[in-house]
Amino acid sequence: MNQRKKNTATVKHVEDDFDVQIPSREELTRFLENASSPANIREIASGLEVLEKPALIALRRRLRAMTRDGQISHTRGNRFGIAKRMELISGRVIGHPDGFAFVRPDEAGADIFLSHQEARVALHGDRVLVRIGGFDKRERPYGTVVEVLERVNIEIVGRYFRERGVGFVTPDNGRINQDILIPKAGKKVKTGQFVVARITQQPGIRRQPIGEIVEILGEHMAPGMEIDVAIRTYDLPVVWSEDVLRETEDIPLTVDGTNLEGRRDLRDKPLVTIDGSDARDFDDAVFCKKIGTDFILYVAIADVAHYVREGTALNEEAINRGTSVYFPNNVIAMLPEALSNGICSLNPNVDRLAMVCELRFGENGVMSKYQFYNAVIKSHARLTYDEVAASLALPTKPKKDSIEFHLRTLHELYELLKQRRLERGALDFDSQEPYFVFNEQRKIERIETRERNDAHRMIEESMVAANVAAATELIKYRLAALFRNHERPDPERIESLREFLNGLGLQLSGGATPSALDFTQTLAAAAGRQDRHLIETILLRGQKLAEYSPENRGHFGLALESYAHFTSPIRRYPDLLVHRALKLRIGRRKQAKEVNEQIAALGQQCSMTERRAEEATRDVVAWLKCEYMEDKVGQTFSGVISGVTSFGLFVQLDDIFVEGLIHVTSLPQDYYEFNSVTHSLLGRASGRRFGIGDSLQVVVARVSLDDRKIDFSMVNTPIRGRKTV
User: Fold this and answer.
1) Residues 471, 372: Cα–Cα separation, whole Å
2) Any idea which fold 88-150 has?
3) What one-character DSSP code corresponds to residue 239?
4) Which of 317, 486, 609, 643 has its CA 20 to 30 A from that of 722?
5) Pair 696, 639: CB distance under 8 Å
6) 3-class secondary structure for 371-421?
7) Considering the entire predicted model, what is its pTM?
8) What is the pLDDT of residues 629-658, one digit of tens each?
């Protein structure tokens, strides 16, 4: 398990808590910048007039803290200097399964390549100081590790093996590319089992990491093992502290009259929840009515902020988790079940506290006004997407003021909002996600997909409208919270996309800064083409990742000038921050200064936890797909090429949405040239071309659960391997 420091606004360096007066970090930095060479502790103390023993001890501790943070460097001669002046760069190690690594600088700059030998001194995630050694033919920097600033890997999850009397653990995380030697494993652990190993000696240039086994997880094919491994590999918080449990016990199970002061009573409004059939927490309810030609939309969101207050253990744990993590058939919730599935969940026919965004739209679908307020509601029904879609498809006219009648009104508004979305050019990549059906032994019975229908899109547009109103309110009243930003692609990526499209006879308008509408028009032009899948895939891969920040930078994908997350505070911490800011506005109170100062750090924390959850979920899904395919080695499937690289073709099988690789050596005999512009492989002798979107018949050649990889071969091509576990 990777034990990493929590990147939250409440974390601070204990080394900087001093009872004596010593120079600040800024003063120390200025002193070292003005020095003609790196200085030792005596020279620094003398120059800054630090004379007393307690102050000298505190100064030494501060210098060590600055060294650890990469602000300064500590030389082997026991001298301190400015890292930049010494041509040193601090950053995080990004390991590669093949043994080399990169260092991603803390500040802006290109990743720095580390050779196999240089990469041996650190593990994935460690912070290091590197010196640039030169540049390769493509002007990419490579370097040497001067010092390891921070070791983040303390416990590692992996499989234990013993060969020729030597025990070792192979990390499950492929980016940790060194085995952990285990001198004494004990008799209980068996070869092939998943274990947790604690590192007792970190790696060096001439030594492997050494560790001891602290926990045996079990056999690698045990039901649910994929989630246990992911929890430890990605250091997902799963245990509720005693303080959290104690606070949870004090939260009421029902809404009583003492909670209703200052709230609007909307219990008579026929609000309903619309979610998937397997949903357990319901954080949004909707209702729509018409007044003349105008539409009034009520979006009621669970009032989590009423129960989760700042300064509580519940709040700190919510920050730590950042988001709920959704695995197939399992979830790690951001909040305890008593809140997420209990008092905060908008269950049907019970009173619940909510924050409501009430929006008014004209007959053209343009929002004319909105307001936020605290309310008490009662959901009139728990509906599923399929039920709502079926109801909307009925030819009969529903009874006036029935739930079905109001759903038709909401759908009428949705059609207007959809048109507005198309006009502004919001991107719509309607990708299909796998859905795993398990048997009683928790083994996969089949893999399906769940199609999005108008009910999904109707709720999505309602949530987008409320989120836009929330962002507008934050900006209007200068409220400190987190925006959901999605920036436009980099100019280099845009140029590459334009070159690719030109090769297919398509254009991406907009010059150096195309808008989302320009991208949407390109997608529309490709709608009837056979290579539409290729074009959509490449345009999607060219987009940046969205992130949270206190600064509004707009949402490129949705073609919106501002956007914030307001609608899911049960499962996302940024939404909870937005709720708190809006509540202050409703109560005409000012935000505390310290909250404003913490928002940036909270944005980084929430972005990190979101990425962590995505990576863990992706890893579990890859595991389950490999497990499902293990008994299908030798079977033939039809599929579509989903990616092309210089080393082969990625193929996604039809219907079951499993992806694997046809290595270039498994293609019909020829010399193949990779074209990065057209994303294709071309045989020199045969002239045969393989590109994204092409259909193929493939044979499952090999399945590796450890590597989360599936290898295919072309039909009639000999199978070179079998499954490995």
Assistant:
1) 12
2) OB fold (Dihydrolipoamide Acetyltransferase, E2P) (2.40.50)
3) P
4) 643
5) yes
6) EEEEEEEEECCEEEHHHHHHHHHCCCCCCCCCHHHHHHHHHHHHHHHHHHH
7) 0.83
8) 999 999 999 998 888 999 999 998 988 889
